[in-house]
Amino acid sequence: IKIHDNRGSGNQGVYETRNITVSDNYSAYTVKATGLYKNAPGDTSNIQFDRNTYKIGTLSNPFRWTSGDLSKSQWQALSQDPNGTWE
């Protein structure tokens, strides 16, 4: 899970959650969600999940993007994990 919060800034500017690739992982969970939690304004561009394997059990909305929970089809409609697999 990636979390974008207001964390201030450093000598190179505002701390942002962006330009991240999450790939080739195995995620098994029965509660909560994976994806991006966006709790503050700011740039969260270029975050890509791909080639991950998910074991999600009976969760109907096991993914999160910014402030909403998503189903597998909604997750993939955002071009997330086009090459992922599900168990």
Explained architecture:
With 87 residues, this protein is mainly beta. The chain is built from one helix and eleven strands. The strands form four sheets. Strands 1-6-9-10 form a four-stranded mixed sheet. Strands 5-8-11 form a three-stranded parallel sheet, with no helix packed on it. It has a two-stranded antiparallel sheet with strand order 2-3. The longest helix is centred in the C-terminal third of the chain and has 6 residues, at 72-77. The relative contact order is 0.26. The mean pLDDT is 90.
Helices and strands in order:
Elements: E1 2-4, E2 9-10, E3 13-14, E4 20-23, E5 26-28, E6 34-38, E7 47-50, E8 53-55, E9 63-66, E10 68-70, H1 72-77, E11 85-86
Parallel strand pairs: 1-6, 4-7, 5-8, 6-9, 8-11
Antiparallel strand pairs: 2-3, 9-10
Task: Provide a brief overview of the structure.
The chain is mainly beta. It is 7% helix and 40% strand. The strands form 4 sheets. The chain has a 4-stranded mixed beta sheet with strand order 1-6-9-10. It has a 3-stranded parallel beta sheet with strand order 5-8-11, with no helix packed on it. Strands 2-3 form a two-stranded antiparallel ribbon.
Q: What is the end-to-end distance?
A: 19 Å
Outline type = elongated
Q: What integer value in Å does the Rg equal? A: 14 Å
User: Structural class of the helix and strand makeup?
Assistant: mainly beta
Q: What order do the helices and strands follow?
A: EEEEEEEEEEHE
Q: State the major sheet.
A: 4 strands, mixed
The number of E-state strands comes to: 11
Strand order of the largest sheet: 1-6-9-10
Output the number of helix runs.
1
Percentage of β-strand residues: 35-45%
Residue runs with pLDDT of under 50 for 5 or more positions:
none
Q: How confident overall, as mean pLDDT?
A: 90
